[in-house]
Design a protein that fits this description.
The structure is a single chain. With 772 residues, the chain is an alpha/beta fold. The protein is built from 27 helices and 26 strands. Strands 1, 2, 3, 4, 5, 6 and 7 form a seven-stranded mixed sheet that branches. The chain has a seven-stranded parallel sheet with strand order 22-23-21-24-25-20-26. Strands 10-9-15-16-8-17 form a six-stranded parallel sheet. α14 runs antiparallel to α17 and α18 packs antiparallel against α19. The radius of gyration is 32 Å and the shape is globular. Bound molecules: adenosine-5'-triphosphate (ATP).
Length: 772
């Protein structure tokens, strides 16, 4: 038997031993859990039996309360403990299938024997709880595995740096307790293992990458020092993967203080949210709050406003390229995306301290009871040194007092009697009981008085609630006034046209995407908003698609959160992001200490051939390095005209399917084009169309616009409109690049006689041409 086989056998034996240990632990936990379950059930059943209830004297009441509290605490403690055992069991189940994926032998300086360290998704101790059978991948010592190859190595602990020598680095593939593969690795973490991981078919949900995290990704994952970590990474470089493992790492590192609910991930679309939602549970961690920026803003728009989605904005600018309204809209988008707009708004808001704020009438039964002018005058009579939101609180107090006065007057009116007659039986019964308590049962005058009070209080409840919510401030009209009356310092070209366009939208309560964050910003500056202090860490994926204004707004609402921003300037697809480098708006850097920037240049998703083709039309593409995974060259199918496209699509899809590709995406520039393709193919193929509302997808043939494919990947990608007409403007470049880089194994481009100029930026030997 060779040395290799010997050690393989020894490793399998160790796997077996560890699994036996896991099973023993599981058994122990099952016994504990079933005892606990019974005790929880009994406690629930007999809750009241064990509580001494005596309400005779005040002291007895206090004692009873204490007894109930004690019983409830006991129950919840047991329930919590039961839940914890459930979690531990889940982790053990995962370990039972694959207890670890790596081993390093480390000889610590000053020691004589090297110690083997096995690394897996969670820690496991031996039965005496003395030695680690498996180390969690996030433990300090595990960083050796990701950061070093055999030779001198070191890692950081709270006590300081530990130096030594790594004498062995080994990787395992263990499935269902069987050692399927074992590699001793050199310079980087097992090219072989990574090759295998990347060569698989695309999945409909993202997978964790803990077994093959690369050194540069590990830096992102384990960064603890920076308040703001900015990652610029080329398409497929593992930004999203690193971000999710980073979440798991931070939750492990700060287990006592940082919980899933303190972390928010802003994702580019709902499809992406569900695509990545398996990673953390796979790592044994609870899922964090994942929300799109649009969903976040919509939740804050309490007024009945309709908000345009970023994709509607995108579709608009992609499909109406040449008309005048669109040109004005683009200028409007540019301005409203900028910090110049924010400083103009700030000036406008500070002027509102003196004049110009607009209010709403307060009406009751269709009568104005407090006129907006009266509210305005009261507001402006308040001391000018008080901030606008604080003044609003004072106005609300003043209004509530006035409303209560009106309420008292209203009680005597005839409409109240009419309403009393309409009261339900239950209402009467309730009043009767209340009066009984007050021992005024025979007093019919008191009864009417009580009923009148009740009816008016009910009628005024809504108004009071709205006043407390500061609804009397007309934020929409005030925001509109900026475009009607204000003369901003930095007004862009076509300002009047922009104003007219904005006024039309706002008057129909429609908030365009470019107005959404500015509108909420103004709203919060006027009526105040408690910043979201519960969020301690904010992750923003596809950060390049946020405008400088939106970033400033995010900083405003999460002033205390640390941030991790991940993006790729080459994939900046929104109209506003076409200008300059959008990933890191300079304002974000102001006032934020400890900024760290990391650049990822290696692309893991696509085959070498696809990366070699796409890098030529990515701005700054020379820095993109492919991972060494071989595949076919991208194929360019040149159709004489668009007539043959249906047949070619059918043929190509069948060919790709026959080659074993399970997820084949037809990625178009616009939703409009995606509709056309879907209609064309739906009779012949089982094809699924993805749109803005899609929340998940299954393997198969999909058709979708590029902006919905962000962050996602497919086995094969077909771009059916790779022609000049679709992609020729400079602003199309990033869209085209994003579409092409969704492919893992195969990329097919179809064009009419006139292909996109971006294709021609790639040398001819980087793709195969097939003329039809
Ligand atoms: N270290 C790694 N080990 C295994 N797979 C990896 C690793 N890094 C990246 N990948 C794989 O590469 C693909 C791309 O990763 P990911 O989606 O995180 O990249 P990205 O930079 O966010 O891409 P994009 O910006 O193009 O959306 C995924 O399939 C991911 O699993």
């Amino acid at each position: 038997m060779g040395v290799k086989n010997q050690s393989r056998e020894a490793e399998q034996q160790r796997v077996d031993t560890v699994i036996l240990e896991i099973k023993a632990k599981e058994k122990e936990l099952y016994t504990k859990a079933s005892g606990l379950k019974e005790s929880v059930i009994n406690l629930r059943k007999n809750f009241w039996e064990d509580v001494t209830v005596n309400l005779d004297e005040p002291d007895d009441v206090i004692e009873t309360q204490a007894s109930i509290k004690q019983q409830a605490e006991l129950l919840s403690e047991r329930e919590r403990f039961h839940g914890k055992i459930g979690e531990e069991l889940k982790t053990l189940k995962r370990l039972e299938n694959s207890p670890y994926f790596g081993r390093i032998d480390f000889l610590e300086a000053g020691q004589t024997e090297s110690e083997p360290i096995y690394i897996g998704i969670a820690s496991l101790m031996d039965k005496h709880d003395e030695n680690f059978l498996v180390y969690d991948w996030r433990a300090p010592i595990s960083s050796l595995y990701y950061d070093f190859s055999p030779g001198k190595a070191k890692y950081e602990t709270i006590e300081g740096t530990i130096c030594g020598e790594m004498t062995l680095k080994r990787q395992f593939i263990i499935r269902n307790g069987l050692l399927k593969g074992m590699f001793d690795t050199g310079i980087t973490i097992g090219d072989q293992l990574l090759q295998q991981a990347l060569g698989n078919n695309a999945s409909t949900s993202m997978k964790s990458i803990v077994a093959t995290i690369q050194r540069e990704q590990n830096k992102i994952i384990r960064d603890e020092k920076s308040k703001c970590l900015i990652v610029q990474g080329v398409a497929g470089s593992g930004k999203t993967s690193a971000a999710l493992q980073r979440v798991a790492y931070l939750m492990y590192r700060y287990r006592e203080t940082l919980h899933a609910e303190n972390i928010v991930l802003l994702s580019p679309n709902p499809l992406f949210s569900s695509y990545v939602s398996n990673v953390l549970p796979e790592l044994g961690e609870a899922n964090i709050r994942q929300i799109t920026f649009q969903e976040y803003l919509e939740a804050k728009m309490t007024d009945k406003l309709v908000v345009e989605s970023p994709f509607q904005q995108m579709e608009y600018s992609l499909t109406e390229e040449n008309d005048e309204a669109c040109t004005v809209r683009r200028k409007s988008i540019d301005y409203k995306s900028s910090l110049t707009f924010k400083s103009d708004l700030d000036e406008f808001i500070s002027q509102l301290q003196n004049e110009g704020l607009l209010f709403r009438n307060i009406t009751f039964r269709k009568q104005v009871i407090i006129a907006k002018e009266e509210i305005r005058d009261y507001f402006y009579s308040l001391d000018n040194s008080i901030s606008i939101p604080n003044k609003m609180e004072l106005v609300a107090k003043w209004l509530l007092a006035k409303i209560r006065k009106t309420e008292r007057k209203e009680r005597k009116k005839d409409w109240v009697m009419d309403e009393i007659e309409l009261l339900s039986k239950e209402d009467f019964l309730h009043v009767y009981k209340e009066l009984q308590k007050q021992e005024h049962i025979d007093d019919s005058g008191r009864e009417e008085e009580y009923l009148r009070r009740k009816v008016t209080a009910r009628a005024f409840a809504g108004i009071k609630k709205r006043v407390k919510r500061l609804d009397f401030v007309n934020v929409l009209a005030t925001y509109r006034a900026f475009f009607k009356m204000w003369d901003p310092k930095n007004a862009p070209d076509e300002w009047e046209k922009i104003c007219a366009q904005t006024a039309v939208d706002l008057s129909r309560k429609y908030i365009t995407w470019e107005d959404a964050a500015p509108y909420l910003y103004v709203k919060e500056r006027l009526i105040g908003e408690h910043s979201d202090r519960s969020v301690r860490h904010l992750f923003i994926d596809e950060a390049q698609d946020y405008t400088p204004f939106q970033f400033a707004y995010i900083r405003h609402i999460f002033p205390y959160a640390s941030m991790t921003l991940l993006g790729d300037v080459n994939q900046a697809i929104f109209t506003h992001t076409m200008q300059g480098s959008p990933l890191i708006p300079s304002n974000l850097e102001e006032g934020v200490e400890k900024i760290e920037k990391i650049t990822l240049t290696k692309s893991y998703r696509s085959t070498k051939q696809i990366v070699e083709f796409t890098k030529h039309f990515a701005p700054g593409g020379e820095m993109i390095e492919p991972f060494n995974r071989e595949g076919n060259k991208p194929e360019l199918i040149e159709l004489g005209d668009q007539a043959g496209i249906k047949g070619q699509l059918n043929r190509k899809i069948n060919e790709l399917k026959a080659a074993g590709h399970e997820t084949i995406a037809i990625i178009t520039k616009t939703q409009e084009k995606s509709d056309t393709i879907y209609d064309m193919l739906k009779e012949d193929l089982s094809i699924v169309q993805i749109n803005e509302e899609s929340r998940s997808f299954q393997k198969g043939i999909l058709v979708l616009p590029v902006y919905l494919a962000k962050g996602i990947e497919f086995d094969a990608v077909i771009i059916p409109d790779a022609s000049f007409v679709s992609y020729h403007l400079e602003s199309d470049r990033t869209l085209f690049y994003t579409a092409c880089t969704r492919a893992m194994h195969e990329l097919v481009l179809m064009t009419d006689g006139n292909k996109s100029p971006f294709i021609m930026e790639s040398p001819k030997d980087k793709y195969d041409v097939r003329a039809i």
